[in-house]
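Write out this protein's structure.
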Amino acid sequence: EVQLVESGGDLVQAGGSLRLSCAASGFAFDDYAIGWFRQAPGKEREGVSSISPSDGSRFYADSVKGRFTISSDNTRNTVYLQMNSLKPEDTAVYYCAADGSGWLNLDWDEYDYWGQGTQVTVSS
């Protein structure tokens, strides 16, 4: 059974940091691209970052570049999203997802498997 389980969401003040985790199981982790997406109330789902665990290549949305860092621990089949200098506009439910093509992208409809999400709230 494929599972993606996010954790680490919390309430934090603007300027603070959080680290989200995405624990994956049930599929060939190294063959997939793993992405982080977010969705705020009343807004469309937005791609945040993507990583290819096989070679470590990464991609970021302009809105988070320089503030967020994606990484993977292939021994634990886990992807992390380190979020620094958080802003109120980063408030959203954050989801991780897996794309079987293995290509880095932030096109949410290309992703095959999704987690349940974790809430990140940034207060001003």
